[in-house]
Amino acid sequence: MIILSALKLDKRFRNKALGTIIILLICRILYCIPTPGVSTEYFETYVQANTTLGLMNALSGGALSQMTVAAFGITPLISATIITQILSIFIPSIGKTAKKKTRNDEKRMNSLNMSIAVIIAAAESLFFAIGFGERGLLKEYSAFYIGLTAVIWTAATIFISLMAKIITDNFIGNGISLILFVNIVCGFPSDAETVKNAFLDGNYGINLTVRIIIITAIIFAVFYAAYIIQVTERRIPVTYSGKISADISGKRLNYLPLKMCPGSVMPIVFTGAVFSAPTFI
């Protein structure tokens, strides 16, 4: 309700929301464009048999199984962000920059993240085109098509990563999270069809209505549990010397929020990328 009121009354907010939607639509179009010279049927079967690749496919909204131009999507940037966070612990210069005390530090970290993302995307694309291309992924296995396919996948990843940064810097919300959200939502129809084929079409000795109620309840329970895990936090009281830490009503004002799931979905995406790397190679 608050968002609808803001859209009606605040023109600046409305323009930002419109810009966000347009960028997300452009990114989604890239996820649907097939890669030239690639056999989609070959890899679709392979993804269904591989749990790790299935997770990556879900985060790409089905683009990985269809081998579209944005098959790798935003995941290289997510992996790059987590890698820089790990490096900041062991490399003092990166750790100092990662604190983003100045605008220049933030620009350096963004450049570092983007550089690592490009390297990851290029390596994944090249190994993928070479390894799976020889087995039937590429309709014509030659140096030209290997290079062309790798360049297309890498360029699409760079473009989507830049769009995510533009959303974060100039529009509404976190660009990476919004792109992942749209991809997952776009995968709902195929997921619904899978659930229908697995649980509703067969004869399990249970009334169809009861099965629908049970499945619906399970889906809502999973979403609610994920929401609770995401928002749950423990507020650790913090008292500063010489400062008042509570208002007149006695409510504490200073606290350190310790979230139950501080990394959100990012570590899962990174783990999936790491475990799928041997498959790409």
Overview of this protein structure:
This protein has helices at residues 2-9, 11-32, 40-48, 51-59, 63-66, 75-90, 92-98, 103-137, 143-170, 175-186, 188-200, 208-231, 266-280, and strands at residues 233-237, 255-259. The protein is mainly α. The protein folds into 2 domains: 14-176 and 276-281, SecY subunit domain (Preprotein translocase SecY subunit, Orthogonal Bundle), CATH 1.10.3370.10; 187-228. A two-stranded antiparallel ribbon has the order 1-2. Helix 2 packs antiparallel against helix 9 and helix 6 (75-90) crosses helix 8 (103-137). The longest helix has 35 residues, at 103-137. The protein is globular. The model has no long low-confidence stretch (mean pLDDT 82).
List the helices and strands and how they pair.
Elements: H1 2-9, H2 11-32, H3 40-48, H4 51-59, H5 63-66, H6 75-90, H7 92-98, H8 103-137, H9 143-170, H10 175-186, H11 188-200, H12 208-231, E1 233-237, E2 255-259, H13 266-280
Antiparallel strand pairs: 1-2
Features:
2 strands, 72% helix, Preprotein translocase SecY subunit, 2 domains, 13 helices, mainly alpha, 281 residues
Can you describe this structure in just a few lines?
The protein has 281 residues and is mainly alpha-helical.
Number of strands: 2
CATH domain class name of the largest domain? Mainly Alpha
Alpha carbon gyration radius: 23 Å
Specify the biggest β-sheet.
2 strands, antiparallel
CATH topology of the largest domain: Preprotein translocase SecY subunit
Number of helices: 13
Structural class computed from helices and strand pairing? mainly alpha
The SSE string, one letter per element, is HHHHHHHHHHHHEEH
Low-confidence stretches: none
